[in-house]
Each structure stands twice: as C-alpha cells, then as structure tokens.
Amino acid sequence: MKKLKRYQYERYAILCQLSYPDAEAHYRQVLKPFHERHLVDKYGRMSVRILWVDNKKEAIVVFRGSLGLKDWLANLVFLPTRIKQVDKKFYVHWGFSRLLHQPMYSSTKTIDEALPLQELLVKVLEPLQNQGKRFTFIGHSSGGAVAVLMADYFERKNAKAVKRVVTFGQPAVGSRSWYKNYLLHHKTYRICCDLDVVTFMPPFPFYFWHVGKMLWLHDDQIYENTPTHKRFFKSLSSWLLRPITYHYMRKYIRNKSLFDEH
C-alpha cells in the first residue's frame, strides 16, 4: 500500500468539508482548477460532487455526510440488510444501504429523471472513465461509509478503475463477510481523529467491521491500525489527563508559531 501524502490528505479533507453547504465561503478557491458535476437528492441538496482536471488522470468523487435529523436517525438504525455488489451479496448497515440506493438526480437533469445513487453514479462516471480517468472515492462520516460501498461496487464493475478510497470519521459498514470480500483493502485509508465517537459506531464490533488501513491522528502522531479497544482506552486516558498535559513544556513550544504573527 502506498503512503497517503500530506498534500493529498489536505486536499481530500478540504474537499470533504466543501461537501457541506456552510464551507464554500472559506474554501471555494480550492475548487477553481476543477470541472464539477453534482448529484442532488430529492430536496435539492448536493450529495455527491465529482471533480476532475482535463490533464490529470485522477477524478475525485466526494460523498457528503449527514445533514439534518432524518439522516442522523437513519444512521442509528443498526439493523443489517442484504445488498448485492455485482457478483457478491453481503449484509451491511441498513442506513448506509438506504443512502446507496436513495433516488438521486444529476445537476444537469430534472428530478423526474432520478435514479438510485449507485446506478446514476456509474452512468455519470462512464464518460470520464472513457477518457482514461481513475477514481478516488472520499467522504466524511456516513459519506465515508457510502464511499467504501460505492468504490467496491465500481471496482467490481470496472476492474482497476479505483485509484484509492479515503474516508474521515467513518463508521463501520458491514459484516465479517463484507470485510473478507472487500476488494480495496490495499487502497483504502480510514482516517480517525482522537476520540471521535462516530468511528466506534455501530456499537457491535464483532458484527460490523471496518475495511482498509486505519490512520489514527492522536497526540500529534499518526498511529496505524490500532485495535479499536486500545484506541478507545488510549483516547479516554488522554482526555482525562489532558488538563495535566497542558502544563508540559512541549505544549508551550508547539504554540510558538502564534507569536510569529505579532
């Protein structure tokens, strides 16, 4: 597995932030080099943004996370449901299966031409694939869950079409069978930050499994593939001790850049 480079991490993180409606004013300039196409839900909210540059081989597919109470309530429906991924069937979280199959329409079409997200996205990406593009699927929270499901589905339909998968604060998606048959473990980076409670969801660790390589950002370090129980207790102990650690001299040194502005 190739390492995720700093500039890639930063770009993907900002693009995930830009999938939410309140972020455009701060980061709009990041989108300037890209051509864009949006997939929109029945409420007219952008749910997927597709980005590409003519002279680059990579196209980026960004999945928005939850917006509003209805989305969050669906995320809490931990019931497993069976889905078909081209040639395989798995049990996955019902809420994420719902998102994968929700009616969606392209920003160039009308709502009367809505298709399930999974079906529509394959159609929209086809012209870019014909131009030789390979696809990076990224997303935050439930958008990360949909990203891994959609990336696996797309790879099954189009071998070697997926360049990488990068998720932020992603909950677990599916059963042990899903984990064993996931095609993109070696191309998937699952990024967690400190004690992000969503990354421990659903609260059934021996039924719902994470995929890919975990990169845990904690105490100014990156830890790789830390077991869930160790991550939880290390985060908890760090949080409890945090008032004491703020007294350490290294904390003062770390903030030296603040004085460069004065």
Automatic annotation (TrEMBL):
Domain of life assignment: Bacteria
GO biological process: lipid metabolic process
Domain Fungal lipase-type: 60-204
PANTHER family registered for this protein in UniProt: ALPHA/BETA-HYDROLASES SUPERFAMILY PROTEIN, FUNGAL LIPASE-LIKE DOMAIN-CONTAINING PROTEIN
Protein name: Lipase-related protein
